[in-house]
Write a structure and sequence with these properties.
Helix content is about 40%, strand content about 15%. By secondary structure, it is an alpha+beta fold. A hairpin with a 5-residue loop joins strand 4 and strand 5.
């Protein structure tokens, strides 16, 4: 018997015979690539599951402002509760309209100190030169009292022309009395006061003047031009819309006179060249039709 045959069958020898085959398998290119890919994939999966952060940790790491913003967005869109009131942002003012003439506040004489009666001397009136020039006639007579001589025609020709009596003379000065704009009508207090100021007079148009304020002017020695109906008669206010969209109050038989005195129950006016008195109640009704308009002397 040969000893070499028995030695070849020992386990150690057999393992030595297959080692070259195993080494060849693992060193082949295809096997190496596949093993490397499997190993890498398993390693990545291990890292993912063992290093995935807890959700609570993520929220805790966010800045406070980020979590608050998210809460506001959710509440404002997904809940029925109203959002917290916001401070309103100032906006531009609406398109401006005609600014009313400021109301006069009597300061010369306190109402409690006004005399029961007062009258102004030295003022003279004249007949108006044109059918609808009463405002210009009253203005130049008023100006003469304060020492300024003005021709009635010249004063009238300097007035602006407009279909809104608050902005200028409406219609022809030779028209018929008693109409309303846009027919021949006349002019209100604002353009008259502006024209008087062009001559250097301290004239101020007012609207909504009270009886006490009127008395204070007379007691101070200042005649007042007022807008009334007819010769201090009754009338009806009419709402009129001019071409530019402005709304104003007009009246048939619009007229001007100059208040020059008062007593306890009556008011004295200069109407053209005529001087007469009307009861206070009657005067106030006529004056109120055109919203107590007047032109006063402003100190």
């Amino acid at each position: 018997m040969k000893i070499t045959t028995t030695a070849n069958r020992l386990p150690g020898r057999r393992s030595e015979s297959i080692l070259p085959q195993i080494r060849s398998f693992f060193t082949s290119g295809t096997t190496v690539l596949g093993a490397n890919a499997m190993f890498l994939g398993g390693f990545l999966v291990f890292l993912y599951f063992n290093h995935l952060p807890d959700p609570g940790t993520l929220i805790a790491d966010l800045p406070a402002s980020a979590t608050q913003t998210e809460t506001i967005l959710v509440n404002s869109t997904n809940t029925p509760f109203p959002a917290s009131p916001l401070t309103p942002t100032p906006t531009a003012s609406p398109t401006p309209t005609l600014t009313p003439t400021p109301t006069l506040t009597p300061t010369r004489i306190p109402p409690t100190a006004l005399p029961d009666r007062s009258s102004i001397k030295g003022i003279k009136g004249h007949s108006q030169s044109m059918p609808l020039s009463c405002e210009s006639r009253s203005a130049v007579d008023w100006a003469a009292y304060f020492g300024k001589s003005i021709n009635e025609y010249k004063f009238f020709n300097g007035l602006p022309v407009h279909d809104n009596p608050n902005k200028g003379f409406v219609g022809s000065v030779y028209g018929s009395w008693g109409q309303i704009p846009p027919a021949p009508y006349g002019v209100h207090s604002k353009p008259i006061a502006q024209r008087l100021r062009e001559y250097g007079l301290k004239a101020q148009a007012v609207r909504g003047m009270t009886y006490e304020e009127l008395k204070a002017e007379i007691a101070a020695g200042h005649p007042v031009i007022v807008w009334i109906v007819g010769h201090v008669g009754l009338g009806t206010p009419i709402s009129y819309t001019a071409s530019g969209g402005a709304v104003t109050t007009v009246a048939r038989f619009e007229h001007t006179v100059i208040v020059i005195g008062y007593t306890e129950n009556k008011v004295t006016v200069l109407d053209g060249y005529k001087v007469y008195s009307r009861y206070k109640k009657e005067f106030m009704k006529s004056w109120g039709v055109l919203e107590n308009q007047a032109v006063i002397w402003l100190e």
